[in-house]
Amino acid sequence: MKLVTVEQAREHLRSDDTDDNADLELKISAASAAVLRYVTVSRWEPVRDEDGVPVLDADGHETPATGDDGKKIVRTELQMGTLLMVAYLYNERDGSNKNGDANYLPAGVTAILYDLRTPTAA
User: Fold this and answer.
1) Torsion of CA 16, 112, 31, 101, to 10 degrees
2) Which of 13, 15, 92, 105 could bond 109 through an S-S bridge, CB–CB 3.0 to 4.6 Å?
3) pLDDT digit string (tens) for 47-68?
4) Residues spanned by the domain of 15
């Protein structure tokens, strides 16, 4: 599942060049997958009560919020993390990972997503 659209990625990258749409679609798919592997929560923005607490269904799961079009809304943090990851992949095309460890997401991505995962013991 792609967490952002090409239009959102282009706006984030401040790019009007549509010649690389196929490449950008690939980067969006890879970035979305990396973000979803990192987090341990639902990808959907939850309905919240008046105190900002997520509303739970009968099974104890967060109730997904829906937009005016009836579609579920992707969490803002997941969209931002995906956009940052797309930008990283777009700007570091050679895959050298000069700015971090190859086993981790870039620091800006983990900073956005950190509260959305439950750490595991090694």
Assistant:
1) 110
2) 105
3) 999 999 999 999 999 999 999 9
4) 6-44+73-116
What CA–CA distance (Å, rounded) separates 34 from 117?
13
Contact 73, 79 (CB under 8 A): no
This prediction's pTM: 0.85
Total Cβ atoms within 10 A of residue 121: 3
Answer yes or no: are the C-beta atoms of 105 and 85 closer than 8 Å.
yes
Of the chain, the end-to-end C-alpha distance in Å amounts to 28
Read off the DSSP letter of residue 115: G
Residue 54 lies in a domain: no
Q: How many domains does the chain have?
A: 1
Q: Does 66 reside within a domain?
A: no
Q: Which amino acid is at 69?
A: D
Structural domain includes residue 56: no
Measured in residues, the chain has a length of 122
Q: Read off the pLDDT band of 96 (50, 70, 90).
A: low
